Amino acid sequence: MKNFLLIVCSLMFLGATAQNDQKARTILEQASKKMQSFQTISVAFTFTMENAKMNIHDKNNGTLLMKGKKYQVKLPEMGMQVFSDGQTVWNYMKEANQVTISSAGDEEQGVIDPNTIFNVYQQGFNYRFLEEKTVSGKSISYVELLPVDKTREYVKMVAGVEKDRQLLFSLVTHGKDGNLYGIYINDFKNNQPVSDTEFTFNKSAYPGVETVDFR
Predict the structure, then answer these.
(1) How many Å apart are CA 161 and CA 132, to the nearest integer?
(2) Mind listing the pLDDT tens digit for each residue in 21-56?
(3) CA distance 132 to 8
(4) CATH number of the domain enclosing 160
(5) Burial 10-32, CB ≥16 within 10 A → b, else e
(6) What is the pLDDT of residue 15?
(7) Domain interval for residue 85
(8) Tens-place pLDDT, residues 115-144
(9) 3-state DSSP of the chain
(10) Which of 192, 194, 168 is nearest to 10 (CA)?
(11) Are 103 and 119 in contact (CB under 8 A)?
């Protein structure tokens, strides 16, 4: 759960050498500034998990909503929903009909605040510009981010940023276990009206739900 949330929330900021590439930094700074300028964000994305050796090719669709420090992540095909009003986080798993409750920013419970990811590149990573490619008619700039902390569960992340709109196009995380976790943006909307009720867990809508409070 924690690994998945890290990857999904990385939508929001959105080697090898100790020196950071200025072109890569400019791309990341522009994307971060652009994302933080929006009042609300609504994203439809595809989440993939691949492992060539194990012949695993999983694909799931999801949505992400953000409004200030509030956020909501839904992956219907995985039976996963996450809600946060900025102070409390609810993680709901449909298969177990269980919701776990924790405080925002409490990483020990597998919860990562998307707002902390806006400037992920500013510390803890070395990064460099890789290439620019045309994908689906869009010019995409690719940047490689390598964690300074080698105990991280992943080797690197490769972010694709739309050159014209300065928005995240894709993010692929290379896990030490050989898994490739990909996030691909299908639709992006900003400054749409979003009710605050979208960011809280409505227990009455989930009959018989088990509650586990970690606070």
Answers:
(1) 9
(2) 889 989 988 888 888 889 999 999 998 989 988 898
(3) 23
(4) 2.50.20.10
(5) bbbbbeeeeebbeebbebbeebb
(6) 35
(7) 2-14+20-213
(8) 555 555 556 788 899 999 999 999 999 999
(9) CHHHHHHHHHHHCCCCCCCCCHHHHHHHHHHHHHHHCCCEEEEEEEEEEEECCCCEEEEEEEEEEEECCEEEEEEHHHCEEEEECCCEEEEEECCCCEEEEEECCCHHHCCCCHHHHCCHHHCCEEEEEEEEEEECCEEEEEEEEEECCCCCCEEEEEEEEECCCCCEEEEEEEECCCCEEEEEEEEEEECCCCCHHHHCCCHHHCCCCEEEECC
(10) 168
(11) no
Q: Find the mean pLDDT for residues 143-167.
A: 89
Q: Average of pLDDT values for 142-156?
A: 88
* Cβ–Cβ < 8 Å for 75, 92: no
Are the C-beta atoms of residues 24 and 128 closer than 8 Å to each other?
yes
pLDDT tens readout for residues 75-88: 999 899 999 998 99
Total of domains in the chain: 1
Q: Give the global pTM.
A: 0.82
